[in-house]
Design brief:
Layout lengths: L5 E7 L7 H12 L5 E7 L4 H8 L3 E4 L17 H4 L8 H13 L1 H13 L4 E4 L7 H9 L3 E6 L7 H9 L2 E4 L2 H8 L8 E3 L19 E6 L8 H11 L6 E6 L5 H10 L6 E5 L4 H7 L2 E4 L9 H8 L4 E4 L4 H4 L7 E3 L4 H13 L1 H18 L2 H16 L1
Parallel strand pairs: 1-2, 1-4, 2-3, 4-5, 5-6, 6-7, 8-9, 8-11, 9-10, 11-12, 12-13
């Protein structure tokens, strides 16, 4: 008689965003060993990934929680102000705020407990961060099933989070940097493990770019902390040395018009293309000669970087946060100082003139991704956690 499959309840809090955390969860479920595990997905909104998982016959459950108004003052998950959150357990205001937040979630917790019991769940794998996943984490702990929190941001834990963290079986972090935000704010090192996000290297396959034109691509949401303005400032210097060059800024966001205005003011319109939101990322990345990642605040990881590396593209990223753990400077990519257009310009100019260097860096980049960031290894490592906590 075959052993019963372990039922894993995944909690996708950001269901409509189709961002990095959604992509990674989709890939995990897709490549999970279905002979051992039965994935069940709790989702907040329908998204392309939810639709794709439905085609794979994954059980889908709409999140049984009440929609709440978003706090318009909430900052980005990677905002450095959040990283330097005051770690003071005796701060009465913070403690009371945490308790108030938890009390408001009681109806949600009750509904989630019912889901866990009704589906006979073995492991709950929450996919956001401690505070964002608080309802399902508490529900899971109250039902005494194995519980994993996947930390996908840089939000430091508050007092309630630290209590919850002590009861969890494991906290998976995207990078050592994101893990440090927890451990420096009261979460036990023993609870935390780093597993780098994986990408589908079969999807991200290199395709030779026949163009003689140097194309520099920048992929990501258009907002200040992503640092696209640094690329525009660098371009002002680059075009003086490289006439046959073009810059593509891929993505949309609140800073789109400001960035376009900056390009116009610097009289660089002939060199820049803004694509807006796209779905064919691989196609656009393959068109690029060089890819830059210009964040001016720390990234918890940097999936765009590993995707570009898988396509054998030389990547230039800022040396803060997760990217430092992905790239070995001048070996399989380049690291530059944030908000330093001169440094960025110098690396782009050098790469634009050195065909062999671009090729050599690109080959080493893909080799690293195959060894360290392939989704099959990612799914296997997480499955090892499942086995360890249920042994």
């Amino acid at each position: 008689m075959s052993e019963r499959k372990k039922k894993i309840l995944y909690y996708l809090m950001q269901g409509g965003s189709a961002g990095g955390s959604d992509t990674c969860l989709y890939l995990l479920i897709k490549f999970l060993d279905k002979t051992k595990y039965e994935p069940i997905l709790l989702y907040k909104e329908r998204s392309k990934f939810v639709d794709e998982l439905e085609k794979l016959n994954v059980t889908l459950i709409p999140v049984p929680i009440k929609e709440r108004k978003k706090n318009s003052k909430q900052t980005n998950a990677t905002n450095t102000k959040q990283i330097t959150f005051a770690n003071n357990p005796s701060n009465l205001r913070i403690i009371l705020s945490s308790i108030k937040h938890l009390v408001k979630r009681v109806p949600d917790i009750i509904n989630l407990i019912k889901v866990i019991k009704d589906y006979n769940i073995d492991i709950v794998h929450a996919n956001h961060y401690l505070t964002g996943d608080r309802s399902v984490l508490v529900a899971s702990l109250l039902t005494k099933v194995k519980t994993i929190s996947h930390n996908r941001g840089l939000y430091p834990p508050d007092p309630i989070d630290r209590i919850i963290a002590k009861k969890l079986d494991c906290i998976i972090n995207m990078s050592d940097f994101s893990k440090s935000v927890y451990t420096k704010n009261g979460v036990s090192e023993e609870k935390c493990i780093t597993i780098y996000d994986g990408i589908d290297t079969e999807e991200f396959k290199p395709n030779a770019n026949e163009s003689d034109e140097i194309i520099v691509g920048c992929f990501g949401r258009l907002e200040k902390w992503k640092g696209q303005q640094t690329l525009i400032n660098a371009a002002e210097l680059i075009v003086k040395s490289c006439i046959n060059i073009k810059f593509i800024i891929v993505g949309n966001g609140p800073d789109e018009q400001d960035l376009k205005t900056s390009v116009k003011r610097k009289k660089l319109e002939d060199y820049f293309e803004f694509t807006g939101h796209i779905t064919n990322v691989v196609e656009y990345m393959n068109k690029c000669t060089i890819i830059v990642h210009t964040s001016i605040e720390p990234e918890p990881f940097g999936m765009v970087i590993t995707e570009a590396m898988a396509l054998e593209k030389p990547v230039i990223a800022t040396k803060i946060g997760g990217p430092i753990e992905i790239i070995n400077d001048q070996e399989d990519g380049f690291l530059v100082t944030p908000q330093n257009p001169i440094e960025l310009a110098n690396v782009v100019i050098n790469l634009s003139k050195e065909n062999y260097l671009r090729h050599s860096i690109g080959l080493k980049a893909r080799k690293k991704v195959l060894e360290k960031f392939d989704v099959k290894n990612y799914a296997r490592k997480i499955a090892e956690i499942y086995e360890e906590i249920t042994y």
